[in-house]
């Protein structure tokens, strides 16, 4: 295993551990609104993920009638998305 691979694994493990600890302590909610998802991951990304049916908004009955997205699914989709490495439109 290369040093770069080890660094990536450790970074992902610490991020996941911190996220789990915050969710268990109640400081981080498991459901986020679309507006919060837009702030975290970008409007274009979230809208594309919804249109591609990678994630589906759901109603949370104990809250208002707004639709919410699952934070863990959003983070998993964002981590697996490699669109950053694609060529810009001008270079295609």
Structure, described:
This protein is mainly alpha-helical and 92 residues long. It has a domain at 27-81. Helices cover 54% and strands 10% of the residues. The chain has four helices and three strands, in the order αβααββα. It has helices spanning 3-25, 34-41, 43-51, 71-80, and strands spanning 31-33, 58-59, 67-70. A three-stranded antiparallel β-sheet has the order 1-3-2. Helix 2 packs across helix 3. The model has no long low-confidence stretch (mean pLDDT 81).
Helix- and strand-based class? mainly alpha
Span between termini:
34 Å
E-strand count: 3
Q: Biggest β-sheet: count, sense, barrel?
A: 3 strands, antiparallel
Mean pLDDT: 81
Pattern of helices and strands: HEHHEEH
Evaluate the radius of gyration: 16 Å
Helix count from the secondary structure assignment: 4
Summarize the structure.
With 92 residues, the protein is mostly helical. 54% of the residues lie in helices and 10% in strands. Strands 1-3-2 form a 3-stranded antiparallel β-sheet.
Q: SSE layout and pairings?
A:
Elements: H1 3-25, E1 31-33, H2 34-41, H3 43-51, E2 58-59, E3 67-70, H4 71-80
Antiparallel strand pairs: 1-3, 2-3
Helix pairs in contact: 2-3
Short key terms for the protein model shown above:
single chain, 92 residues, mainly alpha, three-stranded antiparallel beta sheet, 10% strand, flat
